[in-house]
């Protein structure tokens, strides 16, 4: 793909507030977007994310109760995604999941697992001071935003609109997820939502600061 085509996709993309409810993203195209998330990088490669795609209209209606920034999008988006971030019981250096992940997913031998486990412990305790549940969640959530950016870009590259959403009451929404989505909120917290679909009108011209104001060369 030519460089200009990629920049054109960035210029074309905007936070779409309302979608054409009659246009549905094909399964192939949406799986392409999901694959961009799955292949995203994460710290130590531990993938601290889980995604729920909410297509059931009754569940979407329930989300509207606490997701004030998603109301119109829940009604019109072709696909609607929730990003669940792993909490401390899944991300802390001592969590059983970590060694299991290194063995079963990353396929490391035992000696490498032990070496990386010690490094991961030191990283959390000394380097980033990830010594509270909130600090661990915020650290993991930052990684989930890498997947968010990749999904938005992948969608734009194939002409699909999107809107990232943080406009929700966290406690109330997570209570709904626990009650109606079978989410264990001791293990997972909601970081963001994304709506995908096709725009019904073109946005105003994109505005950004000039490059000279953004980038500093030394």
The structural class is alpha+beta
Helix content: 40-55%
User: What order do the SSEs take from the amino end to the carboxyl end, as H and E?
Assistant: HHEHHEHHHHEHEH
Q: Please state how the strands of the largest beta sheet are arranged side by side.
A: 1-2-4-3
CATH superfamily: NADH Oxidase
Q: Helical element count?
A: 10
Low-confidence stretches: none
Indicate the proportion of strand residues: 5-15%
Annotated CATH topology:
NADH Oxidase
The total of beta strands comes to 4
The CATH architecture assignment turns out to be 3-Layer(aba) Sandwich
Instruction: Output the CATH class name.
Output: Alpha Beta
**Which value, in Å, is the CA radius of gyration?**
19 Å
Structural features, described:
With 218 residues, the protein is of the alpha+beta class. Helix content is 49%, strand content 13%. It has a single domain (3-92, 130-200), classed as NADH Oxidase (3-Layer(aba) Sandwich), CATH 3.40.109.10. It is built from ten helices and four strands. The protein starts with a helix and ends with a helix.
Summary tags:
single chain, 218 residues, alpha+beta, NADH Oxidase, 4-stranded antiparallel sheet, 49% helix
Summarize the SSE layout with pairings:
Elements: H1 3-12, H2 27-38, E1 49-53, H3 57-64, H4 71-76, E2 79-86, H5 88-91, H6 96-104, H7 110-127, H8 133-157, E3 161-165, H9 170-180, E4 188-197, H10 211-214
Antiparallel strand pairs: 1-2, 2-4, 3-4
Helix pairs in contact: 2-8, 6-7
